Amino acid sequence: MKGIFRFLNQISALYTMNKLSALLLPCIASIASAQTPITSIPFEQYGDHMIIKVSVDDSEPLNFIFDTGSGLTVIDKDVAESLGLSGKKKNMGTSMEQIKHNKLAINGFVMEQNINIYAADLNHLEISLGRDIDGILGYDLMVHHTLHIDNVDSELDIYDHGTGPVTGDAIPFYMNISIPTITASVVLNNGEPLEGTFFVMTGAATTLDFNTPFANKNGIINKTGKHFSYLVKDISENETIHYEGHVQSFKFGNETIENLPIGISQANTGIQANADVSGIIGNELLHQFNITIDVPNKLLYFEPNHNYGGPFLINSAGIDIQLSKDKKSVLIHKVYEDSPASEVGVQINDELLAVNGKSVDELGFPAIKYLLSQKGESIVVKYSRGGDENEVTLQLRSLID
Questions:
Q1: pTM (predicted TM-score)
Q2: Which top CATH class is 3-25+37-159?
């Protein structure tokens, strides 16, 4: 879940927001007939990530994450090199390079000419997500077009500004380091109500995460009921503790989500250390809505879809997985204390081979994580340690209930 956070921690400090001049429209949603979109782009729902096809200078389609939390358009440096795209290192305090290009297209739709593309190493993100990722795109699409995300049909509709659908609950937002940010309220597990502001990030594989300053100021760690913790690394390989728990409710606009599993950051750098914003709303929650993003009018429209009210995935096995450094195997990356996995002797760096008789290659990361979250079920896990294969049965239970 935290892979893309680590990357965004790197780029969030690099982006200086363009000043957008627009009048804030009344915040009452109306049902209107939108004009026909300029184009409709299918996307792959890979776990909690939206994958769209992007071409750079007429390249073969590349796999980009669409993330409303990304202020820069980024391409993996190895992909850029393979395409013969030259770069110019920017004075950003990072290894990112601005590359020269002539055309950027999404599923054949040619974007504006003035978009900068930066090359960066996305290897850590690929290891975390369990697949190749060629780039990330967000703000540069939102600022030029009104977007409608259909999370039922997995389609991203692109409109000229002022012509997109305006169905659902209209929620005003402002841009903070290029990320849409809304006001919301939460009731903690002890009944304490809090108000705050939250980034809206389609690239964040979480429901709701509290940023470190907000969490510490309000003592949230001890007010979220039963929880567990683990270490996470930032882009510089520094480790901090991350907590998982739940809150009684979370409300934004007219929408109230009850008994929501949440995360609590203790990062001291990057986007989750931002003291101006309380936290992050991620795509595990956002995918329960079809969403229109209207940047000039600073409005987000949230329309509940058939995912609305469905269960959220809660770690019920006590393990986290990632690819090995050579990306040839799936490793047990974390084993949580007092969990089903720890009780049967699963260890960090065991190689995961199969779940319920299906190989990890056959399943893929999203399906594996789904199986590991089915509380009340029993699953059979096959793994290898030092060349010896083992098979154990896990009696799954939620780690936060």
A1: 0.89
A2: mainly beta
